[in-house]
Design a protein that fits this description.
Layout lengths: L7 E6 L2 E5 L2 E10 L1 H14 L17 E6 L3 H8 L7 E6 L1 E10 L2 E11 L5
Antiparallel strand pairs: 1-3, 1-5, 2-3, 3-4, 6-7
Length: about 120
């Protein structure tokens, strides 16, 4: 699957979040390279169905983002979205794909690495 994509630049800019059912989640939206992230996610969704149990398919088109806090402080999420601390911005090269399984537990999320692979470098 990683062989389907070359390394690419990811640009994160701004903040996002939501409060629902008493839980706040904060994320940073991917602005540059979002199409590549979504494409890779689509390949993974098809490729992992054999042997890895997953949840129901998404109800809407996925949005490329980096989750930074689950069970976040509601005011912190509001501050992030309103950019009260400034506008988070970062660029980096995505050269590796790592598939994680999230275990959401009362004490927080625990992540299990299922697979990792390098994205190919065009040459």
């Amino acid at each position: 699957m990683a062989g389907l994509s070359s390394a690419f630049t990811v640009g994160i800019s701004g903040g996002g979040g939501r409060e629902r059912h008493g839980e706040a989640v904060a994320w940073l939206p991917v602005r540059e390279g979002a199409d590549k992230v979504i494409e890779l996610a689509g390949h993974l969704a098809v490729g992992v169905q054999k042997g890895i149990r997953s949840g129901p398919p998404p109800r809407r088109t996925p949005a490329a983002h980096l989750t930074v806090a689950r069970g976040a402080d509601r005011q912190a999420v509001r501050d992030l979205v309103a950019e009260r601390w400034g506008r988070p911005e970062e660029r980096f090269v995505a050269d590796r794909l790592t598939l994680l399984r999230s275990h959401l537990e009362p004490t927080g999320a625990r992540y299990e690495t299922l697979h990792g692979a390098a994205l190919y470098a065009p040459g």
